Amino acid sequence: MTLPAALPDAIRADVEVLWDYHDMHHTVRPADVGIGLGSHDLGVATCAADLYSRGMFPLIVFTGANAPTTLAGFPRGEAVHYREHALEQGVPAESILIEPTATNTGQNITRTRDLLSRRGLTVRSAVLMSRPYQQRRAYATCKKLWPELDVTCASLPMPLDQYVSAIGDSDRVVNMLVGDTQRIVEYPKLGYAVEQPFPAEVQSAYERLVQAGYTSRLI
Questions:
Q1: Tens-place pLDDT, residues 51-90
Q2: Average pLDDT taken over every residue of the chain
Q3: Same domain, 195 and 94
Q4: What is the rounded end-to-end Cα distance, in angstroms, of the chain?
Q5: 82 shares a domain with 170
Q6: Which phi and psi (to 5°) does residue 51 adopt?
Q7: Where is average pLDDT lowest: 14-23, 45-54, 59-68, 199-208?
Q8: Which among 110, 138, 154 is the end of a domain?
Q9: What's the rounded Cα separation, in Å, for the pair 100 and 81?
Q10: Is the predicted pLDDT of residue 176 greater than 90, yes or no?
Q11: Boundaries of each DUF218 domain copy (predicted)?
Q12: Would you say residue 169 lies in a domain?
C-alpha cells in the first residue's frame, strides 16, 4: 500500500496552524543536560547530537522503551536506538545515558530525573528534545512534574512539508498532531501537565481536522 506522503491541500492551512502552535519557539541556551524523548522520530537523536556538538550541554539522556508505533522500527527500544544513532553522529559514549523503561512523556521526565539523581548529578537546566509537534506537551508535562527545572525545548529544525516527507506518511503526522493538540487541553485536567494557552484559531483548526477524520490518536 502506498502511503500519502504529502499533505492534502484541503487541510494544509489547519495543519500549519497546529504545527506552529506546538513549536515553543524557544532559543536554545546552554544547559546541564539534554533530554531526548523517545518516539518514532530518529530526528530527536540527530537534534541531540547536533546541539551536543555545539556545546549546548555536556551530557545527553535518551529516554524511552517502546510503543506500538515504534516496536517495528526500534526493536531494541527507542532510547537504545537513539543512543546508537548519536554515537554514529560522533557523540562519545561517556556523554550518553539511557533510560530504557519509560512508556509515556510523564515517565520520560520523572525517570530521567530519578536516573540523574541516582548518579549524583545536580541538574538545574535542560534542553528537552522531541518531535516538533510534541514540544508544547513535553514542556507542559515537564513544568508539572519537574517544576524547578529551567527548560527550553528543541527539535530538529525542519519545515512542515520536509518533515512530512521524511516521515513518509502524512496521515500519521496529522493524526499525531491532532492527538497532541487534544492532550494540551485534557492532560492538565488529569494532573499530567500545566495548562497552556489555547487560542481560538488553534481550537478551530483542531476541530476541523477532527471533523475531517483525523481521530486515530485521540484519547
A1: 999 999 999 999 999 887 788 888 899 999 999 999 999 9
A2: 95
A3: no
A4: 27
A5: no
A6: -70, -35
A7: 59-68
A8: 154
A9: 10
A10: yes
A11: 45-154
A12: yes
Helices 43-53 + 78-88 axis angle, to 10: 40
| Torsion-angle region of 213 (φ positive above 0: left; ψ -120 to 50: alpha; else: beta) | left
Boundary-marking domain end, from 139, 154, 169:
154
Whichever domain contains 90, its CATH number is: 3.40.50.620
Record the cell numbers describing residue 71, joined without a space: 516496536
For the segment 84-128, what is each residue's pLDDT rounded down to a tens digit? 999 999 999 999 999 999 999 999 999 999 999 999 999 999 999
Amino acid, res. 180:
D
Q: Among 132, 126, 52, 47, which residue's Cα sits nearest to residue 82?
A: 47
Residue 1 falls within a domain, yes or no? no
Residues in Cβ contact with 130 at an 8 Å cutoff, skipping those fewer than 6 apart: 36, 37, 39, 44, 138, 153, 155
The pLDDT, as a whole number, for residue 5 is: 67
Task: Determine the 3-state secondary structure of 96 from DSSP.
Answer: strand
The bridge status of strand 150-154 relative to strand 96-99 is unpaired
DSSP string, 123-144: --EEEEE--GGGHHHHHHHHHH
Q: What's the rounded Cα separation, in Å, for the pair 81 and 77?
A: 6
- Phi–psi pair at 158, nearest 5 degrees: -160, 130
State how many domains the chain has: 2
pTM for the predicted model, two decimal places? 0.93
